[in-house]
Amino acid sequence: MQGSRQHRVVIVGGGFAGLNAARGLGGAPVDVTLVDRRNFHLFQPLLYQVATGGLSPADLCAPLREVLKKQANTTVLLSEVSGFGLSGRRVVTDHGELPYDTLIVAAGARHHYFGKPWERLAPGLKDVEDATEIRSRILSAFERAELIDDADERRRLLTFVLVGAGPTGVELAGAIGELARHTLRREFRRFSPAEARVLLIEGADRVLPPYLPELSSKAKRSLERLGVEVMLETLVERVDDGEVTLRSGDELSRVPCGTVLWAAGVQASPLARMLAEAAGLEPDRAGRIRAASDLTVPGHPEVLVLGDMVYLEDLAGKPLPGIAPVAMQQGRYAARFVRRRLAGKPTGDFHYVDKGSLAVIGRAAAVADLGFVRFSGYFAWLLWLFIHILYLVGFSNRALVLFQWAYSYLTRGRGARIIANASVGPPPDS
Amino acid sequence: MQGSRQHRVVIVGGGFAGLNAARGLGGAPVDVTLVDRRNFHLFQPLLYQVATGGLSPADLCAPLREVLKKQANTTVLLSEVSGFGLSGRRVVTDHGELPYDTLIVAAGARHHYFGKPWERLAPGLKDVEDATEIRSRILSAFERAELIDDADERRRLLTFVLVGAGPTGVELAGAIGELARHTLRREFRRFSPAEARVLLIEGADRVLPPYLPELSSKAKRSLERLGVEVMLETLVERVDDGEVTLRSGDELSRVPCGTVLWAAGVQASPLARMLAEAAGLEPDRAGRIRAASDLTVPGHPEVLVLGDMVYLEDLAGKPLPGIAPVAMQQGRYAARFVRRRLAGKPTGDFHYVDKGSLAVIGRAAAVADLGFVRFSGYFAWLLWLFIHILYLVGFSNRALVLFQWAYSYLTRGRGARIIANASVGPPPDS
User: Fold this and answer.
1) What's B13's domain CATH number?
2) Which structural domain range is residue A216 located in?
3) Which is the most buried residue in A45, B32, B103, B418, by most CB within 10 A?
4) Lowest mean pLDDT among A235-239, B262-266, B371-375
5) pLDDT digit string (tens) for A333-356?
6) What does the alpha-carbon distance between residue A144 and residue A153 come to, in Å, rounded to a whole number?
7) What CATH number is given to the structural domain containing B389?
């Protein structure tokens, strides 16, 4: 556009939004730079399978370079973004500044503890390290139970508390239930893994609160069939080492437990706040930027913000959920936006197309896993499986995941059961 | 045997030796306890594939509990052994003492730096954490090269030095050569990954020194075809941050490099020294115990020591190598030894049956990987593949590894390219 130099697009983040934006710009008359602090795209919706030993991290990771290697106009840089110079149109990274003509920011979200210092005691599930850490905690709890004689202590170790019954909490609870009741059966000599208690804590009056009530009750029944105790209208008052305090109405109860996992809320990446400050805006409570209806940052038509970092409402005034389909559609929209603007065509607004709640039934059914197979939810589960595998980025991963799934479906086994590092921690008595 | 109580066998270590001993005692009239500080058996011979992004750690790990779950007489404990009380017949662990009637110790080996403080600068490849650390270092070197303009610094980053041309060094060198020349081709925009230099340093006058000279020269030619520079009769004089100093004869040369990997020697687990001290013996230079010809510890017929912890010679007076087939045969022998002694039968000596050097050709040929396909070594490579996959412990892993191999054979891709943790380290200039 400007004389001989190509229009430069910098994309921050290689998640669903950023990667789809980058792919959408393949072959466009622009110079694309994708910056991420990780060298891979992560398929987050299946991360709970890594956390429970069903899949390996690499099954869900596609190297960004490999995905984008055929796009000659695209450079991938592995670096951390530390600031935005909006007036000079530069992104500051750990390895120097990147000038841009159009900036697309899609750095995602992390867990939200609402100001409480619970991150170490109750890890959440957002990236590969979270997943392997959670996997180690879950498996170590069973291992430690085999090492002791004290029945109370064993009961504590085998109590798993999941905070938040959104999709991640529901999937994790179901997978831990399956692990305890089926996978680990007959593997211990001093106790039965089926003694494990899995508590799913939810503040609302049903699981999967954003979905249809029928789906919520189906999901709840499926979870209970796997032995999960679903506690609705219950809040977590405190998290301590070895114990959580729950509140139902005015009643407080203390539950000794070995593992607490957090799935109760997310907060936009700190880059959202940096970008908001650079643009003179105030982020919302979850740290997100209120973008214009074309995903641009108000006052900065050359900056788009996508995915979990953005707060946007649909035409009915309902906020868009922080899920992969929204991010992917926004990424594709951003690429089209750049192409059309460069061609001098109108860009139009972003509209999320909800492909229906079938996938959602599927996800709830997949939580039910094999327990759900015997009735109608089976086909929803198959559909969920199909959709998830379809969207796995690399072919190799897709076939691998399908294979592992078929195998664990047939045997109820979980192969990826590695406890990281050399020990289960200090002896319980010390 | 002694009244109503079962004979108690404690096995320390779930590697090739320990796991084979445990399996061999399935159904025997004994009470078996297998103690390991990890919850899985690791198929070490393929670990270089994890270090170079070809396989995931879990592909090579079989949960010990799962492998042994059908043996009702066997308990698996995840704990670290910290001592041996031979007179009281007890093993001291982090979670209490384990009494035994027969003790089998097979805790393996670690790298040997011959007293030099090089472990951090030049990691070796023995366990899963080593492999993921090495994978991160190799991939990060390429990532950092994409972030800089300085040609000398890039040349340094892209220089990989492998110390020791035994099987591990040869396999790693070949895999890095393959990665640079084939897998990463077209993935970078500012340099060609084929610029990478891979130096394989060996003190002896040929690679794979314990094998037949014809095999050594075939392996060397295969490596050179992948661009590996093989430096024979060369010693590492110093390892510094960003540089190694090499000695050939009287000549010293300094080589700036980004990654140094250690495959020059192993040393028995510290448990060997503990056991030797408890038995009043002196370990050899590599920390191994000189066992009797029936693998018992001299003076302690109730204690057997197996695998990389033991120094043993064959009938010709040649020391047995520290390889998986030796360890597996010793494990099976130990189980038979226990069964026969309990039955009052003669136990006999351990004899290693060398199944021939075909697998060794295969291993060298597999180093050559796809470059070797075009001539006679191909069938050796297939045989090597077949044998390695055959010995992978779990069925699921076996099929998974075969699948991944077929996939990377066809595409030259490597899917498991995860750089651990969030960054490639500080910017090169800082």
Assistant:
1) 3.50.50.60
2) 128-264+358-411
3) B32
4) B371-375
5) 999 999 999 999 999 999 998 765
6) 10
7) 3.50.50.100
